[in-house]
Amino acid sequence: MEKRRFGLFTFAVAGMVSLAWCSSGGAAVDLQLKLAKGKTYYERTSVEQHITQTIMNQQQVTDITLGMGAKLDVLDVDGAGNMRIRYTFTWCMAKQGGPMGAVSYDSAQQATPPAGMEMLAALVNQNYTAKLSPKGKVLDVNGVEQMKAAVQKKLPPGAEAGPMGNLAAAFLEKQGLKESMESLTAVYPDKPVELGQSWTEKRLLTTGFGRIEESKWTLQKREAGVATIGLTAAIRSNPDAPPMDVQGMKLTFNVSGTEEATIRIAEATGLIQMEQGRQLVKGEIKVGESAQAQPMMVIPVVFDTNSKVEMSDKPLETATK
What we know:
This protein is mainly β.
């Protein structure tokens, strides 16, 4: 499942701002991304997902942990404030435990990845560029095909198969990168907001399984130049989306759920310092030879996901705790 809050592609806070911002707590604040050319930021993302499925009356539990590190170099800023950023993957780790056994990998500690982790490991040191607007919208993504070719050159035969291969593949498609980035960066209101005010957006997502997300952000607090925003979202399958193709089978999702998160943004720069949240999605997956045919199997499923993204203008520790 393509997790909305992978959030692997956003920005770190440039530094502390004056405490004088506290005195403006009752005024409206205009939150925008304002990155300076030549700056470098660092990002660390962690996602823990607990998946419960019932297959042939037997409950199966799978736990997946994913960690990613990235370096973000601001290459250019145009007259409209649009920023061209080079994203370089610097670290990855993954753990998976379930009915098929356990496997783990940490690029900071292991030179050779275990079977099933090769594609994820091959992302380390690869890069692409993206152009973002001051409102966090992704205007363009470049270098994805070159990155994909470089990753594939590192892979042994058959390494793209399996859950972790499917997960890594989402980072090698332009649409997947765009959706993942915007899910975290496109959080800014269209106009200045005061404490307690909210803004909303509805998005149609295609990566993983097709779904509709309706998000609401509320400015909850302003302190020491940092704005705290609460996010609530309703998530449901898109009935018009095509099924997911997995090893020749068609998977049709009928799920719904919610997400809650807290976001901290530096008011002076609009940079996201931290986002931490939980997503709970439940429903069923229909498995068949085609979307129109009678399903061969209907699998009740629960996705319980906790995620955290941290950013800094200094390198972040990426070793597994």
